[in-house]
Specification:
- Keywords: Lyase, Magnesium, Metal-binding.
- It holds the Pfam family C-C_Bond_Lyase.
- This is HpcH/HpaI aldolase/citrate lyase family protein.
- GO terms for molecular function: lyase activity.
- InterPro entries: C-C_Bond_Lyase-like, Citrate_lyase_beta/mcl1/mcl2, Pyrv/PenolPyrv_kinase-like_dom, Pyrv_kinase-like_dom_sf.
- This protein has 390 residues and is an alpha/beta fold.
- The chain has two domains: 90 residues, no CATH class; 299 residues, Phosphoenolpyruvate-binding domains (TIM Barrel, Alpha-Beta Barrel), CATH 3.20.20.60.
- Helices cover 46% and strands 13% of the residues.
- The chain contains 17 helices and twelve strands.
- The strands form three sheets. It has an eight-stranded parallel beta barrel with strand order 2-3-4-5-6-7-8-9, surrounded by four helices. A two-stranded antiparallel sheet has the order 1-12.
- β10 and β11 form a beta hairpin.
- It is globular.
Length: 390
Amino acid sequence: MRHFGHLAPEVRQRLFHQEPGEFTADSPARLLSAALGATLYSPATRPRLADDIVKQAARGVVSMVLCLEDSIDDADVEHGEENLVRQFARLAELPVGAAGLPLLFVRVRAAEQIPDLVRRLGPSVRLLSGFVLPKFTGERGLPFLEAVQAAETASGRRLFAMPVLESPELLYRESRVETLEGIFRAVDKYRDRVLALRLGVTDFCSSYGLRRAPDMTAYDVQIVASVIADVVNMLGRADGTGFTVTGPVWEYFRAQERMFKPQLRQSPFLEVQAVELRERLIEHAMDGLLREISLDQANGLLGKTCIHPSHVLPVHALSVVSHEEFSDAADILRPERGGGGVLRSAYTNKMNEVKPHRAWAERTLLRAEVFGVAREDVGFVELLAAGIPG
């Protein structure tokens, strides 16, 4: 699979200076954690789940979570498990096309579900990449991680864990540091098993009876923004101890009545004659999503939880490395720069300081490997326009 693999080769050649690289479910964990992109959630109870997965793969989705937790009613868990097993068996028989299948994860409720589901999946477990672990804390999370490791041993299939950080203990100021320390000890013990940490911002908001509007981002809700900052501070460091932390879910896919002006500037769309695209993005509340994605990246997050297929392309378009970013990163990481120093960027608009910017440059080139590098004259508008049907 590859990002933007659903586009025709000639379209990719027109858009990319360096095309997104191919990867598989068996690629190194470091590469997969960067490649997750927009992880699309779907209830495990959907009657045509296998067909849905194939359809979304053909539209550019590369990672999906099939949910047995909050997205389904408590009374439907047993039916969801049965459907999941049935749909995996069907998926194993379907022709999947050139896109292949996305990375598939199951969000469970209890640790005991993990070995049980792996056993019931039988041969189709080969299609599974791992499990999403809800309401993760150091104490609650260890049994989940132990279950994932045991299931991997039993099945012979490499299985990853993606803990969701969403518990009230993480939100409350008096328990936050202790909770983060416990989470770090747990995930550090199973470091090879943990692909990424996911933020459950909807649960954070619910602890205070809050819900952000479509013209507000998670970073406008200060109590949520403070948690994101502390999670990145303690769990997302670039010194080799950190993990990939993914962005929170965007809940909206059609705008309600607006209080504030749209957040998308007109000029980038006028330049490429895409005014109608801008109007469609605003109509479907995508201007808020695009702003939140940009803030995710500025705050050290990579990838995003998504609950609607229309959110996938914006996440991927804004994950593509610009030609300017690539130029700066490649320049900083040249072997002759090993001693440090300061240099003017090739775009002659900024200072690149080799030692302080090295971690950023390494992270940028990893993102370039999986999302590609745009041509010098291509921006996010062209990437969106190429992928959104007319």
